[in-house]
Amino acid sequence: MEKTPTEVWNVAELIEVQPQAVVSRTLINQKSGTVTLFAFDGGQGLSEHTAPYDALVQLLEGEMDIHIAGQPYRLHGGQMLLMPAGQPHALKANQPAKMLLIMIRAAPGDSQ
């Protein structure tokens, strides 16, 4: 996303669900972290993977199952969940869903 003057965004309106797809849009990409918007059609998801950094998921709309290190979580619009660094995780939308992913690129134990 291009740098723009300060403005108010309705985040969920910045991306649209596409049939049988996962769509992403990077809002911020900095050395210190990223903010990425995702839209999932129902039944779509991301297969199990790990990330070297903590990630905060905020589900904006819909319903999604997230598994972290084998533990299942069900999120509904308005809820958020921390996915810890190094833990395998997978996501699947039970219905069309939009989520905001905030990844903090700081290694655990780094001083502030």
From TrEMBL:
- Output the SUPFAM superfamilies linked to this UniProt entry: RmlC-like cupins
Matching entries from CDD domains are given as: cupin_HP0902-like
Domain (Cupin type-2) ranges: 38-102
Q: Which Pfam families match?
A: Cupin_2
Query: Which domain of life does this protein belong to?
Result: Bacteria
Q: Which Gene3D superfamilies match?
A: Jelly Rolls
- The protein's name in its UniProt record: Cupin
Provide the taxonomic classification.
Bacteria, Bacillati, Chloroflexota, Anaerolineae, Anaerolineales
